[in-house]
Write a structure and sequence with these properties.
The protein is mainly α and 119 residues long. The protein has one domain. The protein is built from six helices and no strands.
Length: 119
């Protein structure tokens, strides 16, 4: 019984231990994952007949300059695709584009983390 109690206490202590703070690179990767999720959403909106004008109006509300630049670039890329091309296999199109944008973001030089709200 004592061994079981000790094991439970150890598991509880390990579970409650403070997590190490994320490095700038880990934070940037998380940011880029969020940008990739936004790319997926924008592609989904395009596939569901959301007009480019509406997407741009929504993007204009973004206050962070870095995020706004990424989002405006994503919108331009998404709306440059012929709709028939991205509607052939919608989910695959979104996943491929999301991966492309995430990788592009990770490769982008940065010196600070943007102030953003995760998508």
């Amino acid at each position: 019984m004592n061994k079981l109690f000790t094991l439970i206490v150890l598991v509880a202590l390990v579970g409650c231990a403070e997590k190490k703070p994320l490095t700038l690179e880990e934070q940037w990767k998380g940011y880029c994952t969020s940008v990739g999720n936004a790319a997926n959403t924008i592609m989904f909106d395009r596939q569901n007949a959301i007009e480019k004008k509406a997407a741009l109006e929504h993007a204009d509300k973004i206050e962070d300059a870095t995020t706004k630049t990424f989002i405006l670039d994503i919108i331009e890329q998404v709306y440059a695709f012929p709709l028939a091309e991205i509607d052939k296999n919608p989910e695959e199109s979104r996943n491929q584009f999301k991966q492309k944008i995430t990788e592009k973001c990770i490769a982008t030089p940065h010196d600070k983390l943007p102030n953003y709200k995760p998508f």
